[in-house]
Each structure stands twice: as structure tokens, then as C-alpha cells.
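Dolichyl-phosphate-mannose-protein mannosyltransferase, pasting as requested.
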Amino acid sequence: MRFTSLVIELIRARPKLVVWLVVVLQAMLWLLVSLLVYRSPPGDLATVIALGREYRVGTDLGPPLAFWLADIAFRAAGNHVFGVYLLAQICSISTFWTLYLLARATVGVQQAVLAVLLTMTVLAFSAPGLEFGPLVLARPIWALLLLHSWQLIGQNRRNAWFAWSIEAGLLLLTTSAAIILLALVVGFALTTARGRRTLMSFDALFALLVIAVLSLPYLIWLIRADVPVIPHWPAVADLGGRAVHGVELLGGLLLASLGIAIVSTFNSGWFDRTQEEAPVIFRPPVDPAARDFVYFFAFAPALAGCLISGLYDLDRVVGGAGIVLLMSGLAVIVACGDLIYLRRQQILRTAWAAMILAPALGVIVATLFVPWTASSEVVTSLPATAIGHFFDDSFERRTNRRLSAVSGDAQLATLISLSPTRPHLFLAATPERTPWLNLDRFNQTGGVVVWRASDTDGTPPPDIAKLFPGLAPEVPQTFDRLVDGRQPSLRIGWAVVRPKVP
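C-alpha cells follow.
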């Protein structure tokens, strides 16, 4: 007897509903994780918010748009980082919905849902869930740029030029990899007759003007700051090691795509001994130009990113795994043919759900159990709110002024910069990263200097004592992590630099 699950029927009858359900539920999952186990921001998120508070046109971490939006979301949530978590999930939902629209234009409505589901298994392991920043913001912008690129090249829709130009400008204001990504789009257009006709139109000139206007402030900042856009070419002797590094990055991308291989294996007909006819997801024949478009942007960004990152010895793939793997699920769907049989439906649902849940469950397990089994500290377990409130109140009680600046240990100072008074962050060890303050101005306006204390005396470490001579340490303050485990107590030494009377 033939059996078709409710999920399959929903994909056939209500594909939009299925897409909205899965992407919103995934977003709610990560927001729940933040409420349960995050006491401080993950990764570099605190730094992103602290730099965004200054509204600089550019920073050493790249273009400014993600930093500005992070500060806006933080303020809109009442100076609570949950607003930035919510912004990250809005970016995730926008990315998958735009991918669905692009897939619908190339493989039809029903198979577009499958493309989104496959891509979710890839990005679940390769893209940050809550760590908002340039890599997260660039994903929906890149997805929109691809959608409108296909509308221009494949569908000859001239009205897409305006949106395309805006997205290209915003991408340049979001990530340093934008130039490479835009070069890939232009390169693909030049390889096709449709694309060359599109680029030869007058609309392309107007789009170029819009892009120049949007990116001009950041370009001026780059010139004035004398920031090298292209790293130095490596020595010939280093090329072998760099090539190995590039292959390792490519291997990491393949590992992140393992979810697609697992789902495809479960769905294969190699070991199907039943006689039941599997339900079919149908699509109209794919336009050869659409096939080329999907394959190109599924492979070219990943290969180019690994090549450049390997050549210049970068830590991660240029553009981020979330961008270079964005089209991987759609590419698999295109390769599967006009008829896709869905076998072992219960196993497929279970495997897919497990891959979506695994990263979130991994975060929870690591937060609760790593402190008991390892000496490494779980960054998100630090009580950022309690730390910020303590130093806000302590400075105001001693000086009768609001805390205006914080320095010392970079990690602790960055967390305190998120406190309700929003003090300026001053990284005294690397002052070029915080050009809005210098040592003289910090001593003039006053602030708090913090460090990790190893004893109850609270003596500052030599590097901080050298940067801030004459510090009078206060009694160190102890804070409880979410889970202390076998780790020593979090003891923070601190000193107040009193503001100079004008």
C-alpha cells in the first residue's frame, strides 16, 4: 500500500508554508538556546557591538554596516544583546526565503522546498547561529544579489537593476570579500550571451553609479587609513604550505556539506527492498542557462575562496562558509533530475531534524559539561550583565559620574562596554583598533581598568601596570559563571582612573 506523509503533501500543496515553518522554527530554536545558556555574547559579537557604538565609517574588522546594525539592534532591545540575536535570526530567515525564491525560479516550487531543506543542513554546521557580524549580514544580501542577477541574466527583467545595484553597494559596505563576489557575478555574465547583453545596457551604468555612491565613504576611509586591501604576496618557499592550507579549508567545506551526503544516502534506492512506490516531487525541465548559473555559484565561490585564503594564509574561507555553500543544496537538486523520489520518509525526517538540532544541542552540552571535563573556559558562561552593572555602579559611587570608558583585559573590557552606561572601549595594548580614545584622553575622562586577578591582592599584571602606571587596585570582585565546574572562580581585579577636574 502506498503511503505519503503529511510533510510530502504539504510540500506539494503548501510549499511556502513548509519553508516558513522550518526556517522560523530553526530561528526560535537558536533564540531559545540564547535564553537558556548564553550569559555573554558568543565569539566576537561583543566586539562588534562595541565598535558599532562608535559609528565609524570603517574598522580593522572591515566595512561598517554590520557594526552599525548591531548597535541599533542592541539599543532597540533596551541595551540587551537579545536584540542582536534576533537580528541574526532575521538574517537567517531572509537568507532561506530568498534562496527559496531563487530556487523556485530555476527548479520550480516543489523542488525549491527541497533545496532549502538541504541547504539548512549545510549552514547548520558551517554558519554561526547567533554570532551576528559581517559574515551573517552578508548572507541575505548575497542571496538577494544572486536572485536579482538571475532575473537580469536569465529572465531579462530590467526592473531588477535598481535592487541589484543597492544590494551590491550594501555588500561592499558589509564584507571585504564583496569585490571577489561581485567579480564572480560579472565574470559569469561575461561568459554568456545573455549576460553580455545585460552588461552592455545603459542600466548597468546607472547601477555602477549607485554602487559608487553607496561605497564611496568606506573607500575614502580606506584611502585615509592606509589600510592594505590586498595582503602581501607570499614567498615562493611558503607556497607549498599555503597550498596544503587551502586544501584543508576545502576539506572543511566538504565536511560541512556531509549532511547532504547523509540525506542522499538514506534516500537512495540502492538498498530499497520494499515494493512500495515512493512519492515523487516533480519539476518542469530546467533551463540550461539556469543549470549553468546554479552550478557556477555553487562551486566558484568555494574554490575561489579556498584558493585566496590558502594563498594568503587566512583563517577562514574568503566570504565565509555560509556564503560559499549557499547554493550547494540547490545544485544537488538540479543534479537530481526532473523527478525526485523520496524514499524512507520517516528516516529522512529523523535524519534531517537531527542535523538541524545537533549544533544547538552541542552548544548546550558544551556549556553544561565542558567546565567539568576541561580547563578551557566557555566564553558564553561569563555573567556579562552582572559584571557590567557592578563596574557601572562602582565607578559612579566613587566619582559621582557615569562610567565613560573601560580598558585593560580586552575580553573583560569588551563585556563591560555593553553595560547600561555604554562606556567607550579602549584597547590600550592595541590602541590603533580603538582610535576614538588614546591614553591621554582616557586619563582625562577617567574610567575603569580591569584584569583577571590570580589572588586576593588584585595586583595588576605587568603589561597593564606598564600601560597604566600608578594604578591603585581595588579589592578584586568574584563572579559566578553559569557553570563553574572544575574551573577557579572568576576573579576580576580592577582600578578606577578618576577623571581630571576641568
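Note for the archive: The beta strands are 280-282, 339-341, 405-408, 424-425, 447-452, 477-479, 490-497.
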